[in-house]
Amino acid sequence: MQDGTGSNDQPAAVSPNNPCPFLRALVAEGFIDGHIVPLQKLSETIETATGTRGWIERLRGKIKIYLVALVANGLGPLRLLRSFWSGAQLDALRDGPLDKHGSGSRILDPTAHVNEAEIARLAGFGKDRPDPAGGFERGLTIEEITAYMDANFERAKGHRRPIDRRLMNGEWPVLLRVMGKSEGENRYLSVEEVQTLFVEHRLPERVTRRLSASPQPAHGGGYFRVLGKAVLAVIAVAIAAIVAIAEFPDQIGPIAPSWLAQLLPPVLPDRAPAKAAYWLDQNWTTEDRHWFHHASQGTATFPVPYAWFIALEQPGLHLFSQPGLLKDSDYLERFGFLPSPKSVHVDEMSLRRFGYASSPDAEPASAPASVSGLRPTTVENFDGLPVGFARLTGATDPATGAAEPDRIGLTCAACHTGSFRYKGVSVRFDGGPAMVDLAKLEKAIGLSILYTQIPGTGRLDRFATRVLGPDAGKEERSKLRDELKKTGENLRNQIEVQKKAFAGDTEEGFGRIDALNRIGNQVFYTDLAAPMFGDTRRRVALTGLEKNLHARDAPVSFPPIWTVPWFQWAQYDASIGQPLIRNAGEALGVTAPVNLSPEAPSEALFRSSIAIENLLRIEAMLRGPDPSTQAPKRFGGLMSPKWPSQIFADDPQWKIDAARVSRGRAIYAEICAECHLGPVNDKAFDEQYPDKTFWTKAWDEKDPVLEEVVKAGMGTDPGQANVLRLRTVDVPGFLDIQPARDFARLGCGDLHLPSTSSTEMKYSFALMLVVDRVSRKWMEDRSVSEPDQKDIWGNRKNCPNPMLESSPHYRARPLNGVWATAPYLHNGSVPSLYWLLRPAAERPRQFCIGARDYDPRQVGYHVDASEIQRCEKGESEFRSTNPDGSAVPGNSVLGHSLEGKPGPDNPGIIGRKLTDEERYDVIEYLKTL
């Protein structure tokens, strides 16, 4: 039949340009026309098919169906008006906004032919279930449907659209709602009924009965109907715009005006659940690993109490559903964080889901119970937050001593815990560079605070109930609302001030952060002028400090931290050599509350919440025993991860080629060892190149600290090296920071610094001395003994590196574990080792980073020559140049180039040009380090 009336004996002809199996069945059985269907009739028919009861639920369902049908044929204003006026054109749905173009089930091909193999594939995700009518049949519950959609989405990688995941969420779950059998968690979608729906265009009899018993909507006519439609058309377009903003912010954000884009939640990659996860053995126990993942540095990174963070909802308007919680691990994983168990003291099967497994061959070292007489705090993760989140308990206002609620902060592990994905497997390791995007998380938290205050959404009531409990009175709720409003206002004021300073920001994106400039902005503006703790109204206003703000224009990759305690210089720019200053400074930058107020009592100045007892233990866990005392000499503590070929034993891409390793070792000795020194763990290298071996040439047993090679003229981006070298800050006089005097007191000798009363000074000097004062104040408040203080400080002085005064320098570290640290160079500008070993001029100027699979051949993230990558939804796009051709600050891909003879006449060149075979030889060798 061609008229869409249908019959039980012969299905009506259905246009192949209608790709929706449910609509095809409605057409075939005569419930709707196969061409144009009024939106009211279409929404009423589909909602009736679900069997939903209750007028509120039915109305909500019809509105949602109506709005989806409104945009089904196109999103242009004229197309929306036509759809509203006439209805949805079902035989023109293909290639419209709702067509997934093969990124869905693929049961129907573009010609509407049914692929039986794909139906069998669907069945493979289900289980045999008891049919309520008797017997058993294959079916899928919502969890199995979700796993099926996840697999479809992963299969479509490379040609899917950002909107496709949302379309999936509105397809099979809706079929479950319409056709599902049984109830609650046991409700399932029958595979046999799905096959009948696709092949025969026939609905289950129970659905047909619902539709046949439902009265059809009446249609009026005349002048008033035409006028009403015209008015409603304008309203419909406005509603469609609101729905698009609320339900499809990822698509609206890129084309929205800037004022609107700032109010939309950050675009994030879809979460792709790992089919398996593995933590690599690195000489730590599971208990110590979990402690490192959640041990507080004393930071209150985010501007809300811990209880608020746990209670806030994810940003987004969500017209038809209630948003999830901000704390949900599934949501935070989309920012790049790794899931973590609430406790590691559970059964082995529970731990295995998070990648933890016992290793019979490993003999992990236990972390010390105390360091320098100080016992670390205990750790809990009762709320199941991801790796890197910690609860700051017993917090106080450092200026007044007043008790503060527990705060939420990031730990060392947030930025220094690495992972990569390969074919659905997640490989995780401690001490490596994280693939997180902190800027997006900061925006999400700010918007969550803002959205909670929107009236009529129910967010504020739900938030108050979670924070205060269901029995809280009106006064308590009103007080909480006022506190939330004040927090939002303080945050907005800071953002407005920082906008002016950050006009020249370079996007950090996934896996990068401008840590040094962030620390400077936090300590020398926020902590001085606008602290986000305690009662800020009582503070003396410090004005004019906006000039201390600096654009975040020198982002770098998170550096690996294994073996770092044995290096003289941990930072890329070889700027701070004293370990406690390095670590405490980082804690201040991640917003450990500190008192830098002129109003508070003088004895409270420099008081902070920094958890030095935990910082000391982390350093000890990383450090391990003196390598000189080991036989053979080797680094202990946190070991660099080993190439995980055992995890992918059946994949030839992960097998090590011994012949290539041998050839690569020779090239390493020829070119790489000059700066990166001999490898720390290769006996064959030590035997073949005894004059270059690490443990005899580079290691001094009398003073067991490695003096890395520090070089200028490498041709790499100078942005990060210039931050501490060139940036200046204004330090208020009441802090009494005088570099010439203070560095002399610290035993730094004559640095030839002028004695001056000026409050303007080099940022590096100011930071080193402020952190020194904060650390000493912490020890004073806790009455740490002189011997313990000497032990804490050790032999390494808090003195500037004079080498940095002349020109930008960077240090070169040993390359153990380098395979796990992509992308490369300090600024993360080179996607893989393969491209790092190519001449600098040939390197990609643009690539995507975020939720990408690891490439074991190029070692890093795959980019083909001359490829212009199309980033997946939410990924970061690294670019070295702007669209107008100008350079992006901090993002140069040049330098450290293999293309000729090194020398002063060839800046940035470190060695001869390699053939492709030689490149892969070196890469193979680096995999073994």
How would you explain this protein's 3D organization?
The chain has 929 residues and is mainly α. Helix content is 37%, strand content 7%. It contains 33 helices and 20 strands. The strands form nine sheets. It has a three-stranded antiparallel sheet. Strand 3 and strand 4 form a beta hairpin. Helix 22 packs across helix 23 and helix 23 (579-589) crosses helix 30 (763-781). The chain starts with 20 loop residues before the first helix and ends with a helix. Mean pLDDT is 87; it is low at 1-11 and 220-227.
Structure, briefly:
With 929 residues, the protein is mainly alpha-helical.
Q: Total helix count?
A: 33
Rg from Cα: 31 Å
User: What is the makeup of the main sheet?
Assistant: 3 strands, antiparallel
Task: Tell me the quaternary state.
Answer: single chain
Spell out the blueprint of helices and strands.
Elements: H1 21-28, E1 36-37, H2 39-50, H3 55-70, H4 77-86, E2 88-89, H5 116-124, E3 127-130, E4 136-140, H6 142-155, H7 164-169, H8 172-179, E5 189-190, H9 191-200, H10 205-213, H11 223-247, H12 249-252, H13 258-261, E6 276-279, H14 286-294, H15 306-311, H16 329-332, H17 348-352, E7 389-392, E8 407-410, H18 412-415, E9 417-422, E10 425-430, H19 438-452, H20 459-468, H21 474-501, E11 512-513, H22 515-529, E12 556-557, H23 579-589, H24 612-623, H25 658-676, H26 683-688, H27 694-697, E13 709-711, H28 719-726, E14 728-730, H29 739-745, E15 760-762, H30 763-781, H31 786-793, E16 810-812, H32 833-836, E17 846-849, E18 876-879, E19 897-898, E20 909-911, H33 916-927
Parallel strand pairs: 6-10, 19-20
Antiparallel strand pairs: 1-2, 3-4, 4-5, 7-8, 9-10, 11-12, 13-16, 14-15, 17-18
Helix pairs in contact: 2-3, 2-10, 4-11, 20-21, 22-23, 23-24, 23-30, 25-33
